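Researcher: We're teaching a course module on how sequence relates to structure. For the next exercise, students receive a sequence and then see the predicted structure as tokens, so they can try to spot secondary structure elements on their own. Here is the exercise chain.
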Amino acid sequence: MNIQEKPSVATPFERIGGEARVQALTGRFYDLMDLEPGYSALRSVHGSELDNARQKLFWFLCGWLGGPQHYTERFGHPRLRARHLPFKIGIVERDQWVACMDQAMAETGVPADLRSQLRESFFKTADWMRNQNG
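Model: And here is the predicted structure for the students to work with:
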């Protein structure tokens, strides 16, 4: 390395392990949502099938974590709040989403320090998405 070059800092996408690991995280998130009774309010918001949501979250997370911009290449700006307005998102749904994602991160081996950082970011985003007071 040249003295003038700065060492590169790994993105969260790289630290997680790239697309395969983001896919595993997304898959586990939706599996947990479908299987765990503690996530029933969150699951009910998603309708009968999860394949479309699973794919879109994978595409979104890749870009959000600093990897390929699959979502924006297909759909443009995510406009998260606007796209989620048709769905009831209150405190229960927010908390279940964050808990489910945290469990998925733990079970798929996201490093503890990154998991903590992402949990905080996910909470802020999920709270911003709320469109119900309760």
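Model: If you want an answer key for the exercise: Residues 16-129 form a domain with the Globin-like fold (CATH 1.10.490.10). The helical segments are 12-16, 19-35, 40-45, 51-64, 70-75, 80-84, 91-107, 112-129.
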